[in-house]
Structure formats: C-alpha cells, structure tokens
Design goal:
954 residues, alpha+beta, Jelly Rolls, Leucine-rich repeat, LRR (right-handed beta-alpha superhelix), 5 domains, 13-stranded mixed sheet, six-stranded mixed sheet, 21% helix
C-alpha cells in the first residue's frame, strides 16, 4: 500500500475511527455519540464513544420529556452555510454493513425553526432530513458493500435551520446477508422493516437482533406508516425457537410473532420513503400456529397492476421444509410506488388464512462515482494531515465542494480552482497540483513554500496562479456599492527558488503570472508570451530575457484605468440616484396623492413592466363596461363588472363600495402591491381609477371564474374538474404564492387565500387574486404584528391568537385549499362534516390519520385518480395545517410535493388510457413491475424483463 494511503488512514484513525473502536465490546459495532463528551454503555449493552475530537461544529445539550438515553442528551450542529461536514469511519473492504444516523432536534437552537438539510454517503446523495417534530428521533439507514477502507457520512445543503446529528452507528453483517446482483453499483436505503404481530410498540433490536437492525412494530399506526389493516387480522405468537440461521437472518423474537387473516386476507398500505423507484423487497414467513392434520395454509401476494408478481403461491410448511423454520421469498429487483398497497390472499384450496411474520423493503440508491480528481486531492492533503483545512472529509467536489476548492459541474467534476492562500504551507509546491487537468486558478500566495516551481504542463487549462482581489467599499453621496478590481498576484510572498520553468510557456490559456517576493533566479523564459501579465519584482537574481519583463507599466496602466473607471462609475451612480429620488412613489397611506394624472392606455402592457400603474378615467371604464351593465362577482369589498376596452382586451372592473378610511387604505395597499408584482400565476393588474371618491381596480378578465365555483358552485353542475386539473390548479396557485414569499423584495404575505380568490383563465390555469389585505413582511423580522384579518375557515389559528402574521399563515390557508381540492367540500359547513364538526381541517384530519382516504375524496372524481398522488397531497395538506407555524413546510416544499403528485398522476392516467408508450417514457414508475437492473442507466429505476419476473427464495 502506498505511503499516502497509510498516512491518510492513520489520520482518520485518530480523528474518529480510533475513538470509535477503542473499547467497543461488540465485534463489528461502531456507535458514536455526536456531541457527547464521555464513553458510556446504554441499557442494551452497546458502548458509545464521543466524537469529542471532531474538529467541526458545536455541541448543544437538549432535554426531551421521557428521553433518558444519554446519547440523545447532546448533539453536534453545524453552520447554515455552503459547507459540507463529514464523519469518516473505517470499514473492511468487500464486507457488508448497515450505517445508521439519527437526528433528535429538541429545539437545540431555541429558534423553533425546524431544520432541513441533506445527508450523503461520500459523493452519493442519501436522504433529505426534514424535521417536523422537536421530540421525535428521525432515523435513516443504509446497507452497503464496502469498496474502500473508509466511508464518509456528510451533512450539507442546509435549507432551513442548522444541520445537526445525534448519533452515527455502523453495524457489520456476516456472510452473504443482503447480497444482491447490483451491490457494486447501488446502495440500499432502508424504507421499511416491519415486525408483524409485535407484542409492544418498541422496536426489536440488539441483543434480540445480533446485528442491531431496528424492526418496527406494526402496532404503531402512525401517519406515513401502516394503515388500512384488514378486518379479521389477528396476532399470534409462540415461545418455540425458530430456525433463522439462513438467508438474511431475521431475529427469533421477530419470527416468533405474526399476524393471520382469519377472513382469508391480510391487506396493508405503506408509505415508502424515497420511492417511487427500484427496490429490494422480501417477506419473512415461519409457520408458528398449530395446524390440524387436514389443515393447509396456502396464499399468494396480490399487488394491484402487477399480475406477474401475484402469480406465486406460498406454502410455508413446504417452502420452509418444516414447522418453525424461516422461509424468505421476495424480489431483488422491483419497481415500487410511493404508496404501496398489497394483500396476502388465501387460495381456494387452502383451509387457513394467510400468515406473515415480517417484511423488509429497501430502495436502490445509485452510487455516484465522485470527482475525477478525487485520488489526486486525497494525495495532496496527505501532506497536511494536521491542518484544519485538510479535514473536511468526503468527496472533494460532491455533493458540494470543500471550502477551498471550486469544481466543474460535470457528472464527474474536475477541480477548477484551489484557494490555499495564507494556509501556512511549507516545503515544495505539492507535485499533485500539476496533475489537475481542469485547474484554472491556483492560489498559493502568503505561505512559506520553498524549492523550484514544478512543471505545470499537465494543467493545460491553467489561466491564473491566484488573483488577489481587492474589494473597495465606497459610500459617496449616499450611494453604497462594492467595486472589485484585480491587483494580480501569483505565487508571491513565498520562498521559491530556482529558475522559472520554460514549460509555463506551453500553457496557452495562462493570462496572469505573478512571482514577486520569492528567491527565483536565472533568466525569464523567452517562450512566455508577451500577452501574459507578469510581475517578478523582488527576485534579486531573476533577470529579464527577450521574451518577458516585469510589465510594471502594464500593471500601473491597468490600475490607472481601473481608477478612471471607478470615478466614472461613481459619477454615473450618483446622477442615477439623484434622478430616481425625484420620481414620485406610491406610499401605503389613506389616499394616493401622488398618482399619475389620467392618460391614454397603451395598446399593450408589458407583463414585466415596473412602471407605475395606469390611471384610467371614470368615463373610460364606464364606456368599457357599458355603464357597468354586467356584474360578474361581488363581496364585502364591492362589485366586479365585465368590460371590454377599445383595443379588444377584456377586463374585470372591481368597484370598491367602502369609502371609509380603512377601505381607502386597502385600496391604496392593493394598488401599491399590484404595481410591483408581475407573475404569470398572479392576476394581471392593469390599472386603477380614483375620481370623486370612487376607488376602482382594473384587472385582466379571467374567463372561467373562481375555483370555488368549480368545486361546489354553479359551475360544478355543468362540468366537474378532474384530479389532474385540480393538481395543476394547486401547482399554479403554489407558484403564485411562492413568488409572493420569495420573489418579491420585501416578501408579501397574502393573508386572505381562499378558493374564491383563485381565478381560472380560459385554459383553466390558476392565478391568485385580491391583495387588499396583503402585508409586506419586515426584513429581518420573524413576523409582522397585525390586526387579525382574513376569512373564517382559512384563517391561521396561531395568527388569530397571537396577531403575529408570518408566511406560514398563507401556508395554513393553502393547506385548507388542498383539502377542498381533494374533497370538493367547503372549508366551513354545518352539514357536510357531521354533528360535532364544522371545519374541514378537523374532519379531514380524522379520516387521513386513520388511513381512510376514501372517506374524504370527492365522489365526482369517480375513481379516476391514482391513490398515491391523492395520499401525497392529503398528507402534505395536513402538514400545512399544523397548529404552529414552525411545524408547517414552506410553500416551496409544498410545491415540490404537488409536482411529484402530478408526475405520478400522469403516469397513472396514461396507464388508464392504455398509452403504454407514454408510460415507458416517464422515469417515474407508479405501477409495480419486476425486472433486471440496467446498470447503464444514470438513475436508479429498473427496466422490465418478464423472463425473470418471479420471486427469489432466499
């Protein structure tokens, strides 16, 4: 083994792995208490070691009611930045392991901002951690075949809150456990591991499972897990030993319990984390019930839409070759949906109902090859194992680059820049740098490097050996801005010796070369082009040759040019700002004294125009509406009339009835906001009229009215809207809200989202309207204090109590709208939700959490939908209407779920219509298929091969 590998492993051995293995009494176990400070042994007999030599992050202590495990009383957290923070563990190559990470938030930051961040295995994305409960432990597990002597688990890409980790565990498997045909190219992320018939809600793990797998009880009945258990399901158990020393070796305690279907069926529904996608799915059976001499137990698995999977018949006694012995049938290669519905059904020649003891489902995660320069960078840092900057771990570029690197965006990225200025580097310039073919910039100044400059001809892309950027901040005439110009440098301020290598002349892309303040000698190479900016002052023994000079004049000229440009820029910005200060702006006041005078409407309005709103005359609007003849809507605000301008454009004219101070203020507010908002999913604002105490707003006309009318208004009787249309309306609406929350400066909180404020154009695309109650968010503040306004049924209860408005108040209202889209019911009803319930949120929550999705689905949809997409939206809607704002997702997260549901529904729709070609073109598989893994694919989905569509007996 090469010396650099030995050194690299030795370093990490001291950094983490040595800590982990010291004193570990259980062979093959590594248990790291992240944020811990002392060794301890838990109630299971597992010894935990602290990560107190880990150099990154900070430690926080937490206290959770009824949580007594020491490893969950502390955690390690990291900054919300662009960095990547990795734990590295030693493993044995060609050995299979389970790696488990857990996360218990405990409000460690006292912010009540639920964190969301990514976890990766080296370069391979593993899971996105979304915390939704401060007191629940989130667990992720991965099964893998070790290919290298170490593995890295990395936290990165914080979206909200701060990344953190509570524990990190490694468990070694024996022999051929979890062997697959695809393990060299794929990891397996654990999605479900179920112990049927469990006698308690606690998981079965070590010491009952010698490999410390977590076998979750089927009695939990929690959302996103097991629901829809069939009538007649009965638990059974035995104390007899079970023969489990084969295949994947489930623990005896798990196999000693089971459920049987006394009515002939066992039916379940699972939500599978990480799916749809390709997976590994196996069931565990052992006959533990005493059968009569004439009894037979035969049954088969039935998966809707998957007749090939449903062919095989299970006879436990026959297949297991005896009573109380393990039989493990399943599929190594199965495409599964997000919502998996399945049944075990008794065959016609069987006297006993089906039985199942346990089940495991894992998702294939395609390994990412990592950076093309990974091995080179590993060799580079092996020279500096004690330096903090060399400890970041994981892949140098993926999923995010180390802090001192830039990388290309290729699937196998190249290192493009190295920033190692002032890092106390000593010795020669590392030769590994000369092997980076994609290197464009090299920053090594301010160190104590010695020796000659190596041959960089292996870096044909190299342009600059470190540009030193000087940022100047100016504040002149109340104009604040940054100006950046280059005072170019290179390998300056080191102690380099010897001649300047002529090989630098072969670098055709090299544009700046600066070597001042070193100890270089000899002549400047004649083959260095004249177009290269150079500076080699301070090298007493380095002389100019024919091909180059110090180009001091070039540098001075460039600097003088930069100063001239600076002065010109300052003057331009100054006069521009003075001109802008003379412009009249709208203010959020009771009336609008600074509106522009009436003028003719241009023939077309640019949708992205930022000009002030057009001011219509009352006579123009009177003519356009034929003296306000056709009323198309009304409400507490006033009446809306249909109109048509002279240029043919159809308009909606909203005449506000209130002339009160409050009414004028809302009018002013809406004009102010609408004038600055331009998005395809917001109703386009065309102008206003303010004459003789008349307050009128003019919008584009939306031909299909409001969403409310189509769900349970008069439009419903004419034609219903399909589930896919409802999803697209939800997507459009979410896009509009996302723009308000993230695309506006400052952010805008709508405050009155409801189905009557979602309008539909002639193509049934949705747009958000009515901004009279909207508020600007205050930058840097967590909320806006506001008198409670809104509509009953959509109103955020937390906002109602606290009078503190946040963007999560809009998310609550949108969650109500999602429930209306599912059910076709109004938000508030005296008749639809039963005697003791008037609110759609309470009603829907009872059904969804009990697994009864059918109980709330709009009957007009007539089963023309995919239940997976329906569940996705229902569960996301419940998250939106959580009691506290910090527990709700952002509107961007909701939008992603809606888009996923649309993909699922489109595939299902194509299947219903028999368009098999359409199905095959989708990368998303909503139906269940079996087949062989195409290792040439760039994703983890599986192709179909009917010739091997049969279960594998393990």
């Amino acid at each position: 083994m090469e010396n650099w590998i030995v050194g690299f492993m030795f370093f990490f051995y001291f950094l983490l792995s040595f800590i982990c293995f010291t004193g570990a009494q259980i062979p093959g176990f590594v248990s790291v208490d992240c944020g811990g400070t002392t060794n301890h042994t838990d109630e299971l007999g597992i010894q935990w070691v602290p990560d107190d030599q880990f150099r990154f992050g900070k430690i926080a202590t937490i206290s959770i009611p009824n949580e007594t495990r020491q490893q969950y009383m502390s955690l390690r957290y990291f900054p919300n930045d662009n960095g990547k923070y990795c734990y590295t563990l030693n493993v044995t190559s060609r050995t299979r392991y389970l790696v488990r990470a857990t996360f218990l938030y405990g409000n460690f930051d006292n912010n009540n901002v639920y964190p969301k961040f990514d976890v990766s295995m080296g370069a391979t994305p593993w899971s996105t951690i979304v915390i939704s409960d401060a007191t629940t432990v989130e667990v992720i597990e991965m099964i893998f075949l070790a290919a290298e002597p170490t593995i890295s688990v990395c936290l990165s890409n914080a979206k909200t809150g701060q990344p953190f980790i509570s524990t990190l565990e490694l468990r070694q498997f024996n022999g051929s456990m979890y062997i697959t045909d695809f393990e060299n190219q794929y990891y397996m992320s654990v999605s479900a591991r179920i112990n049927f018939g469990a006698d308690s809600a606690d998981p079965v793990r070590y010491p009952d499972d010698p490999y410390d797998r977590l076998w979750e009880s089927d009695s939990l009945r929690k959302p996103n897990y097991l629901v829809d258990v069939a009538a007649g399901t009965e638990k059974i158990s035995t104390n007899r030993p079970i023969g489990v020393s084969r295949d994947d070796q489930p623990p005896q305690k798990v196999m000693q319990t089971a459920v049987v279907g006394r009515n002939g069926t066992l039916s379940y529904r699972l939500n599978l984390d990480g799916f749809p996608g390709g997976g590994w799915a196996f069931s565990y059976f052992a006959e533990i019930e005493d059968l009569g001499p004439n009894d037979v137990r035969k049954f088969k698995l039935e998966l809707p839409g998957a007749p090939l999977v449903s062919k095989a018949v299970v006879n436990i006694l026959e297949n297991a070759q005896g009573k109380d012995r393990l039989y493990e049938p399943g599929f190594q290669n199965l495409t599964l949906p997000f919502v998996l519905s399945f049944e075990f059904v008794q065959t016609s020649d069987s006297t006993m109902g089906p039985l199942v003891n346990a089940m495991e489902i894992n998702k294939y995660v395609k390994k990412i090859g990592g950076s093309a320069d990974g091995s080179t960078i590993t060799m580079l840092i092996s020279h500096y194992l004690s330096a903090d900057w060399a400890q970041e771990g994981g892949d140098p570029c993926l999923p995010v680059p180390w802090s001192w690197l830039n990388c290309s965006s290729d699937p196998q990225p190249l290192v493009t820049a190295i920033h190692l200025s002032n890092k106390h580097l000593t010795g020669d310039i590392p030769s590994e740098l000369t092997n980076l073919s994609g290197l464009i910039e090299l920053w090594l100044d301010g160190n104590s490097l010695t020796g000659p400059i190596p041959d960089f001809s292996g870096c044909p892309s190299l342009k600059i050996m470190y540009i030193y950027l000087l940022f100047l901040f100016f504040k002149i005439f109340n104009v604040s801005f940054y100006l950046c110009y280059c005072v170019c440098s290179h390998l300056e301020n080191n102690q380099l010796t010897g001649p300047v290598p002529s090989s630098l002349g072969q670098l055709q892309n090299l544009s700046e070369l600066f070597l001042q303040n070193n100890k270089l000698s000899g002549k400047w190479p004649s083959d260095l082009g004249k177009n290269i900016f150079t500076n080699f002052s301070g090298n007493v023994d380095l002389r100019e040759g024919n091909g180059g000079s110090s180009r001091t004049g070039t540098i001075v000229g460039s600097s003088l040019g930069a100063v001239v440009l600076l002065i010109a820029t300052i003057m331009f910005c100054y006069f521009l700002c003075k001109r802008k200060n003379h412009k009249k702006r709208y203010t959020d006041q009771a009336d609008l004294p600074n509106f522009r005078p009436p003028q003719k409407l241009p023939s077309s309005l640019e949708s992205n125009s930022t000009e002030a709103a057009h001011c219509f005359t009352f006579s123009e609007l009177k003519e356009a509406t034929k003296d306000f003849e056709k009323k198309i809507g009304s409400g507490g605000y006033g009446v809306v009339y249909y109109g048509k301008l002279k240029d043919g454009r159809e308009i909606a004219v909203k005449v506000l009835t209130s002339n009160s101070f409050q009414g004028k203020r809302e009018f002013s507010n809406e004009v102010t906001l609408l004038s600055r908002m331009h998005h395809r999913n917001l109703v386009q604002f065309l102008g206003y009229c303010q004459e003789d105490d008349r307050n009128i707003l003019v919008y584009e006309f939306m031909h299909n009215g409001t969403l409310k009318e189509h769900l349970y208004g008069h439009s419903t009787r004419k034609r219903g809207i399909s589930w896919i249309q409802r999803l697209e309306i939800a997507e459009d609406t979410a896009r509009g809200i996302e723009y308000l929350h993230t695309g506006c400066v400052s952010a805008i909180i709508h405050r009155d989202l409801k189905t009557s404020n979602i309008l539909l154009d002639k193509n049934m695309r949705a747009k958000v309207s009515d901004f009279g109650l909207s508020k600007l968010a205050v930058e840097g503040a967590s909320h806006v204090s506001s008198i409670v306004r809104g509509t009953v049924g959509y109103l955020d209860p937390e906002y109602y109590i606290s009078q503190q408005l946040t963007d999560k108040s809009d998310v609550y209202s949108f969650g109500v709208i999602l429930l209306e889209l599912i059910s076709g019911q109004e938000a508030i009803s005296n008749e639809s939700f039963g005697v003791n319930c008037r609110n759609i949120v309470q009603w829907a929550k009872l059904h969804i959490e009990s697994g009864d999705i059918q109980g709330i689905i709009d009957r007009s949809l007539r089963d023309e939908f995919d239940v997976q997409s329906m569940w996705k939206i229902a569960e996301k809607a419940l998250m939106c209407v959580q009691a506290h704002g910090y527990m709700r997702p952002s509107i961007s997260d909701v939008l992603k779920e809606i888009q996923d549901a649309i993909m699922i529904e489109k595939v299902a729709q194509a299947a219903r219509e028999g368009n098999s070609d359409d199905i095959s073109r989708h990368s998303l598989h909503s139906s269940i298929n079996t087949g062989s893994l195409d290792l040439g694919l760039t994703d983890s989905y599986l192709s179909i091969d009917e010739s091997i569509a049969r279960p594998t007996a393990r």
